[in-house]
Amino acid sequence: MLSVSSVSGKIPQQKNYLIFDLDKWLNYHPLISIVSAHNPTPTRSDDLLKQGLADQLRAEIVSGSLVPGERIVERAWAQKYGVAQASIREAINILEKDGFVTKRPGQTAQVISLSDVDIAQLYEVRAALEGMAARLAASARPDVTTLMSLVSGMQNAVASDDADRLVECDLNFHVELCRLAGNRHLQEHAVRILRPFFAFFRLRLTASDGGLSTWHKDVEAHKKIVDLIADGEADLAEHYVRRSMERFAQTAHKNWMPIPNDPTGVSEERLRPGGAVFS
Q1: DSSP string, 52-93
Q2: What angle is formed at CA 114 by the lines to CA 113 and CA 118, rounded to 5 degrees?
Q3: How many whole angstroms separate alpha carbon 208 and alpha carbon 222?
Q4: With contact defined as beta carbons under 8 Å apart, do 145 and 231 qualify?
Q5: Consecutive H or E run containing 269
Q6: Element of type H or E holding 271
Q7: Which residues, listed in sequence order, are joined to residue 71 by a DSSP beta bridge?
Q8: Dihedral of the alpha carbons of 159, 160, 161, 166, in degrees to the nearest 10
């Protein structure tokens, strides 16, 4: 993992951003462009800093140092890492895109947190969206090479007990399924749901210690979806995806237990070891 301390370079000054913003204008003023070239706007090192901070914060989340629902105070983390508060804000923006944090206007960012009700409702929406995606994809008979490759990736991840790889392949499988539907609006809505869903799934899977042995059946379900799409079985593909989502939801619900009298109000439930099924 990239350490923040390994990233060199100063935090860019506001004047550099002004020069960058006037880039088109500078094209018509060679002399100013030459002067600014001696003090260029940081790009590579700046990106490394933001990504490094995002990796550090993600590690804090995955390890449980930052728990679901906890506020991420920019000033506090800027002081801890010895960087500008704006750099922490940009790192949080990266994590928001990846689904690990949520942000609302005028409020502090929080680590993603989904209740059992949230999970159940998201499965209902996923069943409708991804069922439709499977039907549209099967009707179009697209190239399913990427889907098959992702299923293979999931199989290898289960065999090697690699939870991070499993989640990555699983997320990409469902994103690709929606892309193959050929409906941009469906895909946009699906991605908006899938990223935070799988980010939270990853947190819960990391917190459990039961391994991935229970995943073989679910990986086979993904392969079945690919086969139905490849065979052009539109109605069967939609029905199978919907039924699979119902089963996934039921299994997930069984593996969530309320934590009585939780004084923090942060974590409303926990995952039974070895029971993670969120696909």
Answers
A1: HHHHHHHHHHHHTSS-TT-B--HHHHHHHHTS-HHHHHHHHH
A2: 160
A3: 23
A4: no
A5: strand 269-271
A6: strand 269-271
A7: 110
A8: -80
Are 91 and 100 within 8 A, CB to CB? no
Reduced to 3 states (helix: H, G, I; strand: E, B; else coil), residue 19 is helix
**Which two tokens mark 231?**
């065979």
Count Cβ atoms within 10 A of the Cβ of residue 209 and give its class: 0-12 exposed, 13-18 middle, 19 or more buried.
Answer: exposed
> Can you say whether residue 66 is alpha, beta or left, with left for phi > 0 and alpha for psi between -120 and 50 degrees?
beta
Distances in Å between the alpha carbon of 162 and those of 154, 157, 195, 204?
A: 9, 5, 19, 14
The predicted-structure confidence for 162-179, as pLDDT tens digits, reads as follows 988 998 999 999 999 999
Q: Which residue has the tokens 């991804």?
A: 130
> How far is residue 147's CA from residue 145's CA, in Å, rounded to a whole number?
5
Which two structure tokens, joined as six digits, stand for 192? Answer: 């908006």
Q: What is the DSSP letter of 160?
A: T
Write out pLDDT tens, residues 191-224.
Answer: 989 988 888 888 877 766 666 777 888 899 999 9
What is the DSSP pairing of strand 110-111 with strand 101-102? antiparallel
